[in-house]
Amino acid sequence: MDALQYNSGPPTVLLPPSACSHPIGKMMKRFLVSFLVVSLGAVCPLLADESVRAVQHRLKVGGFYFGETNGRYDTDTATAVTRYQIRNGLKITGKLDAATRQALGVAAGKSEDPTPKLGEDVWRNLRKSDQAAINHPMPENVSPAKRSESPGPAVATRPPAPSSLPVSYSLERLRDYVAAFLLAGLDPQLGSETEFFADRVDYFGERAVTRDKIRLDLQRYNQRWPERQFWLDGDVVVSPIKDKIKVSFPLRYDLRSGSKRSSGKVWKTLILEKTGNDDLQIVSVNERKA
User: Fold this and answer.
1) Using one digit for the tens of pLDDT, what is the confidence trace for 152-186?
2) How many CB atoms within 10 Å of residue 73?
3) For residue 111, which of 52, 179, 198, 23 has the smallest C-alpha distance?
4) CATH for 156-290 (3.40.50.150, 3.90.550.10, 3.40.640.10, 3.10.450.50)
């Protein structure tokens, strides 16, 4: 029997029937299958890595990312993506979703890049941002690669930070704090948000609410609206109040639970005070319809 058989299609390797049952033939089949699996497994991550590497490059040029351009979607990269999202009016997810890719001008691959479950690592990074990195000047003339024709979300002009604002609490850092607070609200681990609050808080008009009571309220909120999306619809406005800092921002929300849905816009206000080693905690939270 000929080793090769030709037809109108591609050439096919034919083995004698005895070869399939022979130990050497079986070993060859196993080797070929293993080779194909390993090869395909090596190529797919490589493509994903190049896509993430392009995102890291864009974020680094824009002053949002300060790590290595290594092609890994790690905690530092997710932190930079979240920082970019809040400053560009995108939904705050910490994930490399289609809208964020479009705004960055980075095309998606054939398949969606897997996003690791980073959880609290990302919002903790944002909450305690490295001040030296955050104060790194962001180039004004940097623009992403060619974007699609549909315009991205409009971003309000940044107001100058109040001159009396402490240096360690720059506007950039307070934006990161807001992003961390909102991202913690999306954390599947219940109670993450409560870490931002003081022991007693003026909580939506009710004075001296304990952290335990806030935790119970947030648990009820999570049960009522298990699917939540938030994004800024304008800039963060900061003003000092004696030894505290008032931070206000317009927030859009989209809440879902099965067939039920609630969406809209509120003007949210946090009052922060310094605690511990240059950290901040919320002593008052309120909101009104915008």
Assistant:
1) 444 444 444 444 555 567 888 898 899 889 988 88
2) 22
3) 52
4) 3.10.450.50
